[in-house]
Amino acid sequence: MAEAHQAVAFQFTVTPEGIDLQLSHQALTEIYLSGLRSWKKKLIRLKNGVITGVYPASPSSWLFVVIAILATMYMRSDPSMGLIAKIQEHLPVSQSLSAQCQTVVSAVLFSTLLWFSLIFTMRMCLKQLLSYHRWMFEQRGKMSNTTKVWVALVRIFSGRQPLLYSYQGSLPNQPVPAVKDTVKRYLESVRPLTTPDEFERMASLATQFESSLGNRLQWYLKLKALWASNYVSDWWEEYIYLRGRSPIMVNSNYYGMDFLYVTPTPIQAARAGNTLHAFLMYRRKLNREELKPWFLMSSVPCCSYQFERMFDSCRIPGTITDTVQHWQDSDYVAVYHRGRYFRLRMYSSSRPLSPREIESQLQRILDDPSPPSPGEEKLGALTAGDRIPWAKARKEYFSLGVNKRSLDCIEKAAFFVTLDDDEQGMMGEDPAASLDRYAKSLLHGKCYDRWFDKSFSVVIYKNGKIGLNAEHSWADAPVVAHLWEYVLATDSFQLGYNEEGHCKGEVDASLPRPQRLSWDITPECQEQISQSLAVAQALADDVDFHVFSFRDFGKGMIKKCRISPDAYIQLALQLAYYRDRGMFCLTYEASMTRLFREGRTETVRSCSNESCAFIKALEGGEGVEVCRRLLRQASEKHQNLYKHAMTGAGIDRHLFCLYVVSKYLGVDSPFLKEVLSEPWHLSTSQTPVQQVELFDMVNHPEYVSCGGGFGPVADDGYGVSYTIMGENMMNFHISCKHSCSQTSSHKYGGQIRQALRDMLQLLCPDQREPSRTDQSQTKKDL
């Protein structure tokens, strides 16, 4: 193929006359430009490394300190109190250097040491300031004088114009809670879920653990906290994600959806052109660290380390544990279409391809009539099945030759792209059902047309809809959501399309065609692919999904009732579950711990004594005032639990790490074993909109994403993801399994709608009734 020849810089042939060397000037030019681009990026990283390394000071402040010291010496004053003279005595310089020059050199050295000392002091002060979390527990709108002083000091010690990673060295380490406090909180969380006899048994196990093994395990954990950046995150990534041997499709990966009501263009290649170019724009900002750090209260920075492995990363299967490999600056993406894999270069002459050029290149792939080679079409099923068979197949069939080269091309790509022949989105006579199909397509597709090991895979549908499937081990959903928000906004509001729906700009006709990847899949490997596909297909077919937008009211109305929107939704989810199953359950809500260095998530045990008391009162027919009071108490309790989780005083990560230490020491703890084996029948997560400034919800309310979701955590439970969009909309993604006769995503969705309305009617009885359409949909689901 022509593109294969263009990729070769030189060829040689041995003839009777000698060696015939043929050079490809075009290839050599591309190699030169690629190297030039690589060196530019290295210089940018070096510059950003210096800026981040001296933050919260700036490199120019060094010059200010040097000038200040020299100026005071010129005024016959010694600010070093004799240290400059000491440095001059031990200065290994030539005798030819004058005394005045030696004094200047010594002063510069002293100024540099003083500058580094000031930076270290400012960092330590900022770290201590950021360890203060009492502000989070104060009543909204009533800031104490202590917190006001604290905010002022944080702003003083924080530098100006921070880069993405500027605060990493100033963030505090995540504290290790006391065993006594964690055990107390745990017992409080399980009291409403256990009988008196069961609770007494757990209390006895907890007391025994606290007084004996707990202190020993805690000592090792504190030792790790002193040594490591975060005492939780590395173990959490390894044991929760990478050591899991079941399929990551459905069980671990999650997805993000396109705009709900708008498709900017119906042309598949055009939508892909803008989308992929927007990803390149984001990666450029990420490499230059031009993305703004995420702040709470506009002053408190959050950790950004999860952004580091966003691009050029892939999960590599292993027999015992997987690993996450990260490469530097891949200049291409891997594309899948109709069973074929392609390598699409995203740069030409050291510049990124324009959206119109990407569209043209992808159209070439769409028009390519070549059939897939034997075993190629469903190769991706290996990443969707069990991990051990995939690890063995990778070692046996993909460690040499053409298969290794093609697999390397996929794994080292910037990201993965699927050009899907299906049409998805909210459409047709039954838009609700179409959203459910859209969610399932993004979650698992056909089980072989995504590369589930890549950090994320972009899906471009035939009708112009797009979506994203992300692997979970390298980062949590808010990080991927930040990327997705930027891509959606850039595609529609910055890049745009021409009148025909194509990308704007011109096309360089000399661009080489996308390169088709070659494979040599043996019959034995094809058999393993079929087995993995069977496992993945059974898992995918068992997923029951329901997605809906709740538009009766949103956070604006909830805030008018003086209640937290997240607490309101969590109580509604528990009320709906109680009505659905007639019982309470252990409820998981993910909260972030990014206030600490390399922090990820913590669990909020949303089902509390207060929430159960409210639901029992409401369902038991208690008076309105009683129910309203209990609802507010439950909301305040939930907010308190959430704040404790965010500030490092959660329950589950601490117990998890103690369990890991016990396994390393080879000791058994009945208490920890039972705690870690408890199933989460209701697993929930909110994905907040982070870059509100990118979207105009007032003038363009149609440009709203439906959010994203994930698969069920327990075989007999629900997975619920929700996104609060603007002031008047909340989107829900509900998953469960068909194989469990006690769960139904549509029925539970109807219960959620009704619970949201009933709670508002309780808080604000004068609110309007929902529309007939909404009522009929609720009755249909119920």
In short:
This is carnitine O-palmitoyltransferase. By secondary structure, the chain is of the alpha+beta class.
Q: What multimeric state do the chains show?
A: single chain
CA distance, first residue to last residue: 59 Å
Taking strands numbered 1, 2, ... along the chain, how are they ordered across the largest sheet? 15-9-8-12-13-14-3-20
- Quickly count the helices: 26
Q: Number of DSSP strands?
A: 22
What share of the residues does DSSP label as strand, in percent?
5-15%
Q: Estimate the global geometry from the Cα principal axes.
A: globular
Q: Name the helicity range.
A: 40-55%
Unreliable spans are 1-10
Q: Assign the structural class, choosing from mainly alpha, mainly beta, alpha/beta, alpha+beta, or little secondary structure.
A: alpha+beta
Rg over C-alpha atoms, rounded to the nearest angstrom: 29 Å
The largest pleated sheet is described as: 8 strands, mixed
What's the overall average pLDDT, rounded?
90
Pfam families: Carn_acyltransf, CPT_N
Membrane topology: Multi-pass membrane protein
Transmembrane segments: 50-74, 104-126
Protein name: carnitine O-palmitoyltransferase
